[in-house]
Each structure stands twice: as structure tokens, then as C-alpha cells.
Amino acid sequence: MPTFRAPDGTLLAYHESGSGPGAPLLCLPGGPMRDSAYLRDLDGLAGRRTIRLDLRGTGASGVPADPDSYRCDRLVGDVEALRVHLGLDAVDLLGHSAGANLAALYLTRHAERVRRLVLVTPGPAAAGIVPAPEERLAAARLRAGEPWFAEAYAALEEMAAGRGTEAVFAKVMPFFHGTWDDAAREREADTARQRNAEAAGVYGGEGAYDPAATRAVFAEFGRPVLVLAGEGDANTPPPTAAAYAELFPAARLEVLKDGGHFPWHDDAEWFAGHVAEFLDA
């Protein structure tokens, strides 16, 4: 497995696949701080060379000496070190969920290194966007016919009212997946095994984000941006994704009908088709 050194000396790992033409697609995982293995279905996406980064303290990457270095803004240096290590002038950058916050901060510092930007069900904290509780509930109500709906929706109402606990949060997980079947349950169980909880607690800590500065860079970023959302995603509901896309001069929003927070699982052909068309345009 290929590795490189972060600016502070931490040994980091990445996973490379495919050999298609064009700029490589660098994929940043969410979680936050989840092993990039959950993105392995994106390997070779759209016939391209893809690179998945294991963030420090996750997957095959090393644990840093300074746990404060898990903060999102401090991870930007790791992404840039990978680009330099690979000898790339520019990359196409994909961020999923919380990984979109890292993609956003990388863009604020290294916009000239980003050819095209793909934000998949993006976490919007770096841009200062907070999904309205009713937007989350409206997305969830699309699943009202499911046998598990009543318990999950009651838990989501608790969270919307600011009374969420870890146990309550676990009950809303069906709203993250377009289909809550055995495969989705297994993938959700993987989350606990793949996620660095300590690092996740630091990732969005105080000082990580400067929304005004980030929005200012977005407004000047004239290269193409693709925002992908799931119609039934209670984490990043479509209105939140639309508000995010509107921050860029050249962004396009695509919403997968009946999709959730992981749209490549819900409709792989739809997902790959939109990404391929966007990157090849």
C-alpha cells in the first residue's frame, strides 16, 4: 500500500486504482474521520484514475503525535502533501459528507490546484450552512410507508428539538440510506468499526471553520462544481444541498429520487453517469 509523509511526519496511506485519462479524482472520506474503505465502490469511478486518502488516524494511516491535528483545517496540509507526493499539478476533488468540509477548506487555500469539484451529500459546516429541522423532517417523511418509520421519525423529531443522544441518533440511521435493507444495515454497522471517534470529536472543533472566508473563495471559484444529493437524505436534505450549490458561480445540483446519504449505493449507474459526464465535459 503506498504511503507518504504528512508535514508533521505522520505516515499516511492512500489507495489508487484505475488509469483513465484526465486529472485524477482524489476522494476525501466523511464520517467524520472514517476509514476510506467505505468509498471503495468509487475505485476506478467513471473509468478514471481514483485516489482515496486514509485520513490520519484512520484506515492504514498512522496516528499523529498531536491529537489536535485531527481538526479539519489542519488536515488540509495532508491533502496538499499527497498532491505534491503524486507530482500532480491539479486534481479533480471529491468530498463526501463531512469530507466535503475538508474539500472546501482545501479549496480556500489551494484553489489553483482544483480542476473540478464534486460534493456528494456535503456536510455544509465549513460554509456556515445549518440544515433547518423541518428540511430534515420533510426528507424523512418521504419514507412514511416503511415499517420502521414511526420509531425512526420519532427519534429524528427528538434530534430536531435538540434532545438527541447517541442512542437516539442510532435510531435515525434508516433515513441515511435509500433502502434500509440487510446490505444497508451491514454498511451502517461498519461505521462504528471504521470511524475514529476521538478524531471525529476534534474534526469540527472550535477554530476549524471560517465560513465568511470560505464563502468568499467559493464566490470567486469559477471552475465547474457538481453537488449530488439524495431526495430522502435527512442528513443533507435537498434544500441544504441547493443552498450550498448557490454559493458557487458555476455549480450544478443533481438530486437522486428516493436516494439517501450514500447515493452510489442507491443507484450506481445514476451516480457514475453524472460524475463521468461532469468530469469529462
Looking at this protein, list some descriptive labels.
Rossmann fold; single chain; alpha/beta; 11 helices; globular; 281 residues
Q: Can you put this structure into words, describing what you see?
A:
The chain is an alpha/beta fold. The chain has a single domain, classed as Alpha/Beta hydrolase fold, catalytic domain (Rossmann fold). 39% of the residues lie in helices and 16% in strands. It is built from eleven helices and eight strands. It has helices at residues 72-86, 99-110, 133-141, 149-160, 166-171, 182-194, 197-203, 211-220, 238-245, 263-266, 268-280, and strands at 3-5, 11-17, 25-28, 50-54, 91-96, 114-120, 225-230, 251-256. Helix 2 links the parallel strand 5 (91-96) and strand 6 (114-120). The longest helix has 15 residues, at 72-86. The chain is globular and about 50 Å long.
Q: Please write the CATH class name.
A: Alpha Beta
Instruction: Tell me the count of domains.
Output: 1
Basic shape: globular
Strand content: 15-25%
Instruction: Profile the largest sheet.
Output: 8 strands, mixed
Unreliable stretches covering 5 or more consecutive residues: none
CATH homology superfamily name:
Alpha/Beta hydrolase fold, catalytic domain
Oligomer category: single chain
The helix count comes to 11
**What is the H/E order?**
EEEEHEHEHHHHHHEHEHH
Strand order of the largest sheet: 1-2-4-3-5-6-7-8
Q: Give the % helix.
A: 25-40%
Radius of gyration: 18 Å
CATH topology: Rossmann fold
Mean pLDDT over all positions: 96
